[in-house]
Design a protein that fits this description.
This protein has 158 residues and is of the alpha/beta class. The protein contains six helices and eight strands. It starts with a strand and ends with a helix. Bound molecules: iron/sulfur cluster. The site of iron/sulfur cluster has 12 residues, from α2.
């Protein structure tokens, strides 16, 4: 079983009430091979919600208490992001997920890069908070940008 970011399968869970639909990921859900998660909703945040970025580091730094997740208006939403990461990890354990395909660049889900905290659309290498927590607990994290090989393997196993 896989975890997939709900927005990649077409649910309008993004901060702006939109989705990031990709047919290949919705197919995995239809085939019963995936469970959807939206860490920010699981953490108690509403949809739509103000955009947020990690300020002062990466998702790993947030888990260590060295960085925060802030909205552009200056609201500290770190606790909700950490709660959402923990809920996502609990979900992975409930369904026995060993890997996750999460939306790139999100402050929760990013697996290769995240926005740099300046709210200037600038990205830097790093994990989002949920991606960092899942990796810490041995769950492999892919994004829509590097899941090609995994999708091929899953197709062969059909
Ligand atoms: Fe998608 Fe993750 Fe953002 Fe939820 S938190 S909308 S799953 S990128």
């Amino acid at each position: 079983m896989l975890l997939i970011s709900s927005c990649l399968a077409g649910l309008a869970t993004r901060y702006d009430g939109q989705d990031n639909y990709r047919e290949e990921f919705a197919d995995l859900l239809r085939q019963g091979r995936a469970v959807l998660v939206c860490p920010e909703q699981l953490g108690g945040l509403p949809t739509p919600r103000p955009p947020a970025e990690i300020v002062g580091g990466s998702g790993e730094d947030v888990l260590e208490g060295r960085a925060k997740v802030m909205t552009a208006a200056g609201e500290d939403v770190t606790a909700a992001f950490v709660r959402g990461a923990e809920m996502t990890l609990s979900t992975a354990r409930m369904v026995g997920a060993e890997c996750a395909i999460l939306k790139e660049s999100s402050p929760s889900c990013g697996g290769l890069r995240i926005y740099d905290g300046s709210f200037s659309k600038t990205k830097q290498p790093g994990f989002g908070v949920t991606a960092a927590l899942l990796r810490r607990h041995g769950i492999a994290v892919y994004s829509e940008e590097n899941a090609g090989e995994l999708l091929q393997l899953l197709k062969q196993a059909e």
